[in-house]
Structure to design on (193 residues):
């Protein structure tokens, strides 16, 4: 099967279950893991683990007579991703990037019906909190700014790829937020680093 630009991002916008789908940007990196189905719809033996990027085809060869469980995750950036431990795959989350996650099954029928391509629809499991200060409408420059998340719970943790849930979380004091200019030569619009 090949994996290419069919990768999509899936985000929950509100508790009203409003969702949207959008193509991911070319070059966004992801990890793809495929396991033989243990007979109960759960991951058994690891078949293959690959790192890829959107827009670059990836091939993973499987026996079409078997059934498989697959997982994929991304931090929605072009930064390299480290391979997780294939026996107990977990991801240590950070406050600096979102976590996108997908899980599915492959069998002879859905391999044939997809033409050998596997579209991946990611669910957003964690969001990156971003801060932006904009004084353009005030026609003023930002000379100095100090910002922090006072009393807002920001956490890092460990995400289990096989179960799709956080197995532990730890509150993090992110301290003062470092800000940078968004537009070169302008001090009117700043965002966190």
């Amino acid at each position: 099967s090949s994996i290419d630009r069919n990768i999509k991002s899936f985000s929950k916008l509100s508790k009203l279950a409003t969702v949207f789908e959008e193509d991911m940007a070319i070059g966004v990196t992801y990890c793809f893991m495929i396991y033989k189905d243990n007979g109960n719809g759960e991951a058994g033996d690891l078949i293959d683990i690959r790192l890829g990027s959107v827009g670059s085809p990836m091939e993973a060869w499987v026996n079409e007579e078997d059934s498989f469980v697959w997982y994929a995750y991304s931090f929605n950036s072009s930064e390299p991703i480290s391979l997780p431990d294939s026996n107990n795959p977990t991801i240590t989350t950070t406050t600096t990037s979102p976590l996108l996650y997908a899980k599915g099954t492959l069998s002879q029928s859905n391999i044939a019906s997809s033409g050998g391509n596997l579209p991946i629809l990611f669910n957003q499991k964690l969001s990156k909190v971003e801060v932006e200060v904009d004084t353009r409408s005030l026609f003023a420059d930002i000379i100095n700014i100090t910002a922090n998340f006072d009393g807002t719970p920001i956490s890092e943790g460990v995400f289990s790829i096989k179960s799709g849930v956080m197995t532990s979380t730890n509150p993090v004091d992110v301290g003062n937020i470092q800000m940078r200019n968004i537009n070169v030569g302008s001090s009117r619009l700043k965002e966190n680093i």
In short: The first strand starts at residue 2 and ends at 3. The mean pLDDT is 78. Helices lie at 108-113.
